Amino acid sequence: MHLSHIDLRLDYEVDAPAHLRLNIEATRTGAQTVLSETLSIEPPPVRRQAGCEPDSGNRFVRFDAQPGPLTIAYRATVRRPAVHVPATLPEVPVNQLPDAVLGDLLPTRYCESDLLARCAQQLFGDLPPGIGRVQAIADWIHESIVYVPGSSDSTTTAREVFVQRAGVCRDFAHLGITFCRALNIPARLVVGYVWFDEPPQDFHAVFEAWLGGQWVLFDPTRMAPVDRLVRVGTGRDAKDVAFSTIFGAVRMTDKKLAVRELQDERVAPARTPAPSGELRGIEKPEPVL
Amino acid sequence: MHLSHIDLRLDYEVDAPAHLRLNIEATRTGAQTVLSETLSIEPPPVRRQAGCEPDSGNRFVRFDAQPGPLTIAYRATVRRPAVHVPATLPEVPVNQLPDAVLGDLLPTRYCESDLLARCAQQLFGDLPPGIGRVQAIADWIHESIVYVPGSSDSTTTAREVFVQRAGVCRDFAHLGITFCRALNIPARLVVGYVWFDEPPQDFHAVFEAWLGGQWVLFDPTRMAPVDRLVRVGTGRDAKDVAFSTIFGAVRMTDKKLAVRELQDERVAPARTPAPSGELRGIEKPEPVL
Amino acid sequence: MHLSHIDLRLDYEVDAPAHLRLNIEATRTGAQTVLSETLSIEPPPVRRQAGCEPDSGNRFVRFDAQPGPLTIAYRATVRRPAVHVPATLPEVPVNQLPDAVLGDLLPTRYCESDLLARCAQQLFGDLPPGIGRVQAIADWIHESIVYVPGSSDSTTTAREVFVQRAGVCRDFAHLGITFCRALNIPARLVVGYVWFDEPPQDFHAVFEAWLGGQWVLFDPTRMAPVDRLVRVGTGRDAKDVAFSTIFGAVRMTDKKLAVRELQDERVAPARTPAPSGELRGIEKPEPVL
Amino acid sequence: MHLSHIDLRLDYEVDAPAHLRLNIEATRTGAQTVLSETLSIEPPPVRRQAGCEPDSGNRFVRFDAQPGPLTIAYRATVRRPAVHVPATLPEVPVNQLPDAVLGDLLPTRYCESDLLARCAQQLFGDLPPGIGRVQAIADWIHESIVYVPGSSDSTTTAREVFVQRAGVCRDFAHLGITFCRALNIPARLVVGYVWFDEPPQDFHAVFEAWLGGQWVLFDPTRMAPVDRLVRVGTGRDAKDVAFSTIFGAVRMTDKKLAVRELQDERVAPARTPAPSGELRGIEKPEPVL
């Protein structure tokens, strides 16, 4: 078990009345536990509508913003699940795939698995099925695609990344998803907060493949171990998990993100409170929104 | 109220063990009523798994097929809803859109509304918002895109259709969806059976836009009035509503489809029940009308 | 030395007054010699303008066609050069490339060498420079791209072929050209008539790379030895060497092509005429147009 | 008659031995006259090879560069031709087009006139042929495409510009060329130096269409009258007229360009020298390379 502390601050300048939908809160599904969190919006919107997508567990907040500066701050302490990935996990034959994951075989805006079908077969079709094959996909991407900030934009698809051989984390993940789907392995995108050894901290994107009846995470960028991920969004591709969707004339003016690794109090029970009484490293539990 | 009778027969040759997922049954949601239907598979599969997608109401059947000939036959009598479209219906501002339709604003595999955003603004951005604007989109497509069988394939996207100015019904619908989404009007694809005045009968694709709090159908091909549609599938684009998804070496050898318009018994009340007293309109295999 | 006999017949139906430009005559440049030829157009056009492009040596005929049937017939006997390709030939460093071939490094409509630059580097960048590297390109294409008639059309580019991994001879050649240019090896397209061991005979397309100060032919399809090629057109890509460019409403109704391999009389001088006095296999020399 | 003075300075950092080809000198063809010019390269290359492309008249300099800083300076005084464009000029029917301009109807890397053929027909096909139609093309581009620096890059094609409705001067020109070719009007790209009313000065790109037996310039950006253009390059699209083609690891570190409008002494002979005796605005004639 591990603890992460997230401290995110987004500054915007709103030029005209606008509507925003944020997807920046850690999910409360699965083994991940949100120990404490606050999401503040300044100035506070008249009406603030929070929700959770039933299938994905993605949480969102919607609100109107008036002209002027706007600041979003999200702070959370999250207990991340330990990730135990078996060394061997079989691919599930399509006729045994649950209905619910069949859709994760379909091509999407950024993952044209239909167009890259022959490529996937050539590169990975002869490998033995199973988790090793998906790992081979992640390895191939790591070795073949150069991580180049600015080499892609919000319209870049897996096919383009395959041709230009450059991209950023979401492009790496999209290509992994695309190859998996082309091989009839359900796959989807996962985004969240990751503690990198080297700054700057940023949102991160990895992918997940359905193997042996469970979702298994892969990070073709190898920028951090996947068990450092604090999950925020799960979707078919990046369009489903944008951290902000903005309708109107709104400009981001600053973004600050700190992700810290905390000691888990259960792992270190002997640790006594500091004289001041404050718990070092643990956010004082706050009312969850 | 109207009645349609569907008689579909699909012949395949299965070259190796395969898995099929069919989406050919009329939906039972909304105002549409399936009075009677049979779906037969020859040879009958050992296991046949039927289901219905919770959000869309799309129905599907999955089964394994063994090498040899395979025949699917679907016959149904369906009462179609009368379609009353108000002459005026407003667009719903994004901050009032229900969470459930927000996703219908996103770009998808075949509908790159992000790429066509400026085009949509140029062509339709200055029109008064409301149902008239979506009708203007459908009219523009009808006048600008040539219906050319064979001009597109299963990989063709709305952007390509916009450039090549040619396509078939699903391409017309994809372009309509794309323009709507680019204008912040939720839109989605609807496929089904339509009785055309001129043969051959075929599956048809139209699109639906969210206006005034309801989904409204549009057919940019103008091949048939939209109230002739027997709905089979509703989805974000064609990838969600393929009538057959085939995993394995299976070739279609023949397709026969007849769609007939029946008189509604309420319109023709003199027709008496058959002597056998059987319940018309219940699944029990019935003599087809 | 080898002799080929070409017998081409093209039938068209002209629906409205049109203008045609044909590029179907064997070139008279280099080591290739046209021993005899006739090009007939039925009905004969009022004005028939023949020419030869100064740089490429491509020959063309332009004429107006009136409504009705139109038949083009080209017959020629051509002595093909023996192709002696040294086992080793160096790539020419860019600073030593003649001005005249620098343009053959540029991307063109069908050969986006700029887009495939990183791919070319990954696949072939570490190979030792020289003819062996270009042969490796041709081999890779032969092994990676499936020859599928109908998988491409007149708009298909090398990038698309690289992604879809399927194409026909001109696509194979375009991809070879693209990889070469991306590695700073000048390359261009060559089209002509080739005698295939198996019918049907057809136009063929191969590519040529500038190595050791000369153009060297490569055929990634391996459909026939390159020394069987009767050269008709040389250009930067397929747009430069279309065998027919048609302005107007003209439909091809039939195409017949026979390519035969003849014995060269000079190579076999002892061969006596057959009793009938006719020369077996050699067209009676005809006045060249 | 008009006089322009060009003062261009390009600074590079060469990281490894490289080869450069520059196309920055004003052409000496047609009515344009280079009164004086110097092209200096610092440090001076061991060997400097100058040339002029026979068809286009484009001039180029090739040389090797060694690691370290590299500075190119080009200064020239050029008498520009007066541009008299008749109000009416006919399109030339394809069967009367000279062989030499037929190639300017073909699609190229950046101008996919084949893909945009139906669009061109829809937008401009019904307009009366002639110079007015090409002007309508330029007008449409001016009104439909937004000038957005950074919205395109060196791989952007006319099709992409048509879809994204944004670009810079070369994109505007490429789209104009593409529409012309799709309508069977030969068209090509022209680049050079232009004196803009508002800084910064930069290279500029416009296009030229073949009308009434002559090339006529059009600038869809309307950034400056076309008779202010000092022609440097003429080609089928941007790939033919790159101002620098660099083979090797060379980074541009600075670019300075000043274009000034001079009074022509022959046009204004009565103008007396300023008291200081210096000729205002006229470079002292320098030895031409």
From TrEMBL, chains A, B, C, D:
Residues 161-222 form the Transglutaminase-like domain. This is Transglutaminase family protein. The lineage of its organism: Bacteria, Pseudomonadati, Pseudomonadota, Betaproteobacteria, Burkholderiales. Residues 269-289 are annotated as: Disordered. Residues 280-289 have a biased composition (Basic and acidic residues). InterPro entries: Bact_transglu_N_2 (IPR048930), Papain-like_cys_pep_sf (IPR038765), Transglutaminase-like (IPR002931). It holds the Pfam family Transglut_core.
